[in-house]
What does this fold into?
Amino acid sequence: MERETLHRLLRDMLLARAFEERAAAEYMKGNISGFMHLYPGEEAVAAGVINAANPSDYIVSTYREHVHALVRGMPARKVMAELFGRADGVSGGMGGSMHMFDRERRFMGGYAIVGESCPIAVGVAYGVAMRGLPDAVICFFGDGAMNQGAFHEALNMAGLWHLPVLFVCENNHYAIGTEVHRHSAVPDLYKRAAAYNIPAERVDGMDVLKVHEATLRALDHVHRGDGPQFIEFETYRYRGHSMSDPGTYRPAVEVKAYQAHDPISAAIKEFEFSYPKPEEIAEAGADHIDRLAQHLIAAGHAHDAEVEAIKAEVKQTVEDAVQFAATSPEPTMDAAWQALNCNRHDEVLI
Amino acid sequence: MAEELLYWQALNRAMDLAMAADETVFTLGEDVGLYGGSYRVTEGLYAKYGEWRVRDTPISEGGFTGLGVGAALVGLRPVVEIMTVNFALLAIDSIVNAAAKLPFMSGGQFSMALVVRMPGGLARQLGAQHSQRIEQMFMNVPGLRIAVPSTPQDAFWQLGQAIKSDEPIILLEHEMLYFTKGSVDIDAEPPPMHRAVVRRTGADLTILSYSRMALFAEQAAAELTKEGIEADVIDLRSLNPIDWDTCANSLKKTHRLLIVEEDSRFAGAGAELAAGLTERCFSSLQVPPQRLASLDIPTPYNGKLEAATIPQVPDIVAAARKLCQPATADAAAG
It folds into this structure.
C-alpha cells in the first residue's frame, strides 16, 4: 500500500477519535443536545471503506455518521457546527447529529430510521444504472438494521436488477442493547446476503488495512458492473449506543470474552456503569489506531515524530472546529422556512 | 383541442407526454409494466420506454417507494404507483420520514421531484382493508403536497404538473373515477396545481368537496335547484395547500358552509376545512359550518351497509336543505 494512503488512513482515524471524544465532552457541557451516537472503536471501517471510494461514488450513511462525513472530506468545522445546531453546519443546523448531508461530496445523508436508508441507497443506484454511469453507491448500516423489512426489500431489488451498491454492514454486535446472537436467527450476518444472490464476505473491521483492501476489491466488482456486493465488518463500539445509553446491558463475562480479540475492551468496565477514559484505553494497550501507527513505523513509512505531528494536527483541527461552531450564529426561522421550500423555485401553487 | 377521455386515459396521456419530454421521468410499481397497470394508467408505456423507465417491482411498497426517494435525490423524476392507498401504509416511512423531510433536513441541498400516485376512496365491496381514506394522515405532514383530481382534465393537468415540480407530491386518485369520462384539452393552459375551482355558482350555500365527492356535490346541487336552493359548489382539487381565498370568497356571498368528505368524520380533512374557514370567515357565516362525512367505522363488506357508511347524493341534498332553513325554523325545531 502506498505510503500516502497509509498516512491518510491513520490521520482519518486519529481525527475521528479526537473529534468524537471532543463531541462527547461538548455534549456533557451542554453545547450539543439530542441523540448523539459516537464512533470510537469503529474508525477502521469508515476510514478503510470511504478511502477506497472514488469521489464520484455516493455514500449513504446512518445516524452514527460523523466520522463517515469527516472521512469523506467534510470540514470538521462544519460537522461540529451541525452538532452545535448552528447556521454554518453542513445541514444549516436543520439536521443535527443524525442528519449530515453534503451534496457536493455525494454524501447522501445520515438516516435516523434504522434500515430506511437501504431502499434509498438502492434508489440512488437505480438512478446511476438508468443513466448508464459507472459510479457505485456505498450503503452503510448496522447489524440491527438487517432485521428490518426495508433492508430485505432493498437487497432483493438490488440483486434482482444488478444495481451498483456496496452494502457495508458495520457489525458492532449490538442492536442498541440487544446482542447479535439475541437478534439474528443467523448470527453470521454476511450469510444472509446469499438469499438475494449477493456475493458477501466477513472481514475484520478492527484492521483498517484489511478493511481498505476488501473494499477496493468489492468496489472494483461494483464499478465493473458485476452488481451489488456485501461486506460485513466485525467491529465494536467502545461507548454505549448513544450519549443517553450507559451500555450496562453488556455483561462483564461477555466483555471478557471479547478481550481475546480486542485489547481495548479490557478497559471497558461495564460494572462501574462508566465509559472507558482515554487513559484507560491507552493502558489497555494498542488499539486498532495504535496498531496502524506501529505498522507504519515498523515498515519504515513513518517515524514517531510524524505520528506525533499528526496527533497534534488533528487536535488543533478539532479545537478549531469547536471554536468555529461556538461562534457560528444560530439559524433563523426564515432559514428553516427556506429549507422547507427550497424546491419551490418560482412555482405558483394557487 | 379537446377530446373525450376516461380518467385513466387522461393520466396515461399525462405520463406519456412527460416521459417523452423528459428522460429523467420514470415510473415504478407493482404491475405497471408488462401487465399495463392495475387501472391501465401505465398501459403501453413499457413497450414504448423499456423496463428501466417503466419498472415492474416486487410487492415491496416501502422498498420501492424508498427507491423512488433515492432516485429523486440524484435528480430523477420518479412516479411511484402504489396499487391502492391502503398499501401506502407500508410506504409511510419512505413518504413521511424520508420524502417529506430530506430536502429540509439537509438544509435545502436536495430536490425531491417525487410523485406518489395511488387511488384512494371506497370502491365496491372490497372490505375494510381495501376501502380506506387516509388523506387526513398525509395532510398533517409538513413538506407534502396533495392533489385530488376529480375529473379527467384535472387528472391530466395535475399529474403533469406534479411530475414537473421539484417537491414531493401525493396524487390521490379514486378507484370509482378511473372509468369516468370527460373532456380533456391537452393544449389548454392549466390553472395553478392547487387552485380550487367553482364548479357551479349559487348564492344560498357553499358546498365544499374534493375527489369523487365533488361529483356527488354537483349532482346534489342539480337536485337542490329544483327546490329553489342554489349552491356554490367548490372542488378543492388539493388538500395541501388549500385554496382558502376561493372558499372565503364564496362564503362572503353564501354565508353557509357544507363540507362533504369521503374520509371518516373524526379528525378528518373536513375538520381542518371547517376550522380554517371558521377562523378566516367567522363574521361571514350565519350558521356553524356543517360536515357531511363517512361514518367512523371500518368499511363493512355488505353492499348496503358499505353504501350507508359514506355520504350519498340524497344525504348531501338533505344536509344542504337543513342548512338553508331559516334560523327561526331551526330554533322552533330545536
Summary: Chain B touches chain A through 52 residues (CB under 8 Å). Chain B has a mean pLDDT of 96. DSSP finds 13 helices and 14 strands in chain B. The two ends of chain B are 55 Å apart (CA to CA).
